[in-house]
Amino acid sequence: MKKLAGLLAFAVALAGAILVTQYYTAKPKPPAPPLVAPAPPAPPPPADVNTAVFLETKFVTLDLASKKASVTLSLERSPASPAPERVWVWAYFFTQETAGKYCEGGPVEVKRPFDSGSRARVTVELPVANCPAPRTPSTTFYARVNVSSESSFAARLVEQRISYDITQASPVMLRGARR
């Protein structure tokens, strides 16, 4: 009888070990996906959303006698984003001879620049004030240009963002310099 009880205990232990092994090695079933209605499609963005506009400055002139500047630039926007109705172009001018000083033009509004697609080439004229007089005939002025599709205020850089780094500025063709 002892042998039969030992054999029965061994069989129960073996069956238990097999069941425990199968339980821990079995791959769990993935949970069923929740039954949720799909979200409605997102509405298109309104036309007045600020669209990212990228620029490349092509040609800049500064006429110190008439206190005007001309900036020609290429604008590009993402074809997936809505075309802004207008953009504002702003520029400031500086020279390495007068460190920490710059002159600027007021932001100029360009209406419907992207009527012909996602790229545009525009030329704007800006009135400028308080430009330092060049000290030598070889003085080089530089320009930094900023564009905003939000507002004229957003096109202007705040004083802390004004940079005199010529590696990221465009050289300016100087006209009407006083000698």
List the helices and strands and how they pair.
Elements: H1 2-25, E1 53-63, E2 68-77, E3 86-95, E4 103-105, E5 108-111, E6 119-129, E7 141-148, H2 152-155, E8 170-171, E9 173-175
Parallel strand pairs: 1-9
Antiparallel strand pairs: 1-2, 2-6, 3-4, 3-5, 3-7, 4-6, 7-8
Tell me which CATH architecture of the domain at 53-175 applies here: Sandwich
Number of helices: 2
Instruction: Outline the biggest β-sheet.
Output: 9 strands, mixed
Q: How many β-strand stretches?
A: 9
Order of helices and strands: HEEEEEEEHEE
- Amount of helix: 10-25%
Strand content: 25-35%
Average pLDDT, rounded to a whole number, is 81
Class per helix and strand makeup = alpha+beta
Q: N-to-C terminal Cα separation, in Å? A: 125 Å
And the CATH topology of the domain at 53-175? Answer: Immunoglobulin-like
Segments where pLDDT lies below 50 for 5+ residues? 42-49
Rg from Cα: 35 Å
The CATH C-level class name of the domain at 53-175: Mainly Beta
